[in-house]
Amino acid sequence: MKFEDIKLSPNIMSGLQDVNYTELTELQEKALPKILEGSDALIKAAPGKSKNATFVIPALAKIDGKEEVEGTTTLILTPNSDEAQQIDELVWAAGYHAQVECASIDLDGSEEEQKASLNDAPQVIVANPGPLLSVMQDLRFIFRHIDYLVIDELDKLASLNLIPKVKNILKRVLSEHQTLIFTSELTDEVEAFAKDNLEDGIAIGFDENGVPPMLDKPPTVPQDISQGYIYVPNRMKITTLMAHIEESPNERAIIFTASKRGTDRLYKVLRKNNFKSTSLHDKLSDEKRAQRFANFTNGDVQFLLVGDLSATTMDIDNVKQVINYDVPEDPDEYRYRANLVSRGKASRIVSLVSKQDRNDINKLESELGQSPKELDLPEKVQQKLEERRKKKKESNNRRNGNKQKKQQQKKKKKEMELPRPSYEKLSGGKTGGDKKKDKKSGVIDMLKNLFS
């Protein structure tokens, strides 16, 4: 694909010829059309000229297309001075015919020159975050006209601990703008930053589909499905699940658990009760995962058990029921799960709420537009719960009866004991005395009694 195949002004085409750019690279073929349309984007790209041209060309095209340019409209943040200077040179060379002015505020420049460059308000500023933030703070400077923002090599900025400075710079950009983020790899920090700073963003270069789920805004919960939750009695979660699915025996359902261990346990229970099921978890190979998913979508099994995987990884929308065996902590995950359900009041998402899940369901109720409603315990569970209460009551009665019986036996035994003689009736009394004195005293008393 050649640059003539995309719509660029004569000034920009002349500039590209000056720098010997004639054909688009693979990266540019994927990215330029989307960028020129004005989309926010997260783009995977290795450092080099191809990457730099991918964001410089749209910047020049945007500036050249304006009748009047007021102040700095393009800001490019990059981690090191060499990269900043290379980008600056490319902007000057390719933007020569469009009369685009550019300044570099980097680690190699003097502070006074950088302050002068910022105050001169060139159309493009290429900067390292540290020096730019320092100058902006000293001058109390605010960008009011930025409409095109590039954050280059975000993964490297993160590794250099420059993300906080980037965020502080962005707080001083007050205008609406298109945002492009370039990175060599997708780390957790890059993903979180992109999610916070891209509006309706797309991703380029990460997978065949082009748009990874992390950039998708979570969907709203469909208004035409039923939402409910069941408060589960202590140690009766599996019993409650089985009673619930037995009340709708022919429905296909996806059951989400928090771990592989949870799916393994439920698989054994379902198989024991003659229900066909299969499981997905992050330990499976791609081939096995695809096969098991196909078994469910083809109707070969009734229940798909999902452990420790997000609903965003599943492309299905025709199940009648989603069951949260474990309530998700993230409301967005709940929304994604709800969107797996077919539309209509006959379809539903049901959560089993144990004592440990109360905080999670309260959080869902506060954040969702349409709150789930509490459902009655299945009749079978109510019966078992009543049986449990009766057994507990009988056990308590037996325990209390045995306790009373023991107390009665103890009392009866005490009543049957012979009275013990007091010290006064014993020979010698309380003070005792020697054996000789006791014997003499006893004979005299006997004689007195005999002749009385």
From TrEMBL:
| Region of interest called Disordered, as start-end residue ranges on this chain | 366-452
The Helicase C-terminal domain is annotated at 237-383
Stretches of Basic residues bias are at: 400-413
Give all residue intervals belonging to the Helicase ATP-binding domain: 32-204
| SUPFAM superfamilies xref list | P-loop containing nucleoside triphosphate hydrolases
Keywords in alphabetical order: ATP-binding, Helicase, Hydrolase, Nucleotide-binding
| Gene3D superfamilies cross-referenced by the UniProt entry | P-loop containing nucleotide triphosphate hydrolases (3.40.50.300)
Protein name, please?
DEAD/DEAH box helicase
